[in-house]
Specification:
This protein is α+β, with helices and mostly antiparallel strands. Helix content is 29%, strand content 11%.
Length: 90
């Protein structure tokens, strides 16, 4: 959570998530796309974020999740970036 301190621009809300399940398929759980959908909708409904400027990123195991989740969440995303992960057959 401190990796990017000092590099986050003003006006950016950075939500750092860790998988709830310590498992090889931690980002492949069926509930995750709906979970992220609910989080994004809540921020949009509360007028906290611009729905046209939602980006997701992840590194290491989080990068693996980006490979998997970003295509399913494409309607909500302005962009997605994977860092230091691997595609795991996605």
């Amino acid at each position: 959570m401190t990796l990017y301190n000092g590099f986050i621009p003003d006006g950016v809300i950075w939500v750092v998530l860790r998988s709830w399940e310590e498992a090889p398929d931690m980002w492949w759980k069926a509930y995750l796309p709906s979970f992220f959908d609910i989080i994004i909708k809540a921020f949009v409904l509360k007028d906290i974020v611009n729905p046209n400027k939602v980006f997701i990123s992840g590194y290491s195991a989080g990068g693996d999740g980006i490979y998997h989740l970003a295509p399913m969440m494409a309607d909500w995303l302005a962009g997605a970036a994977m860092m230091a992960g691997h595609p795991n057959g996605v």
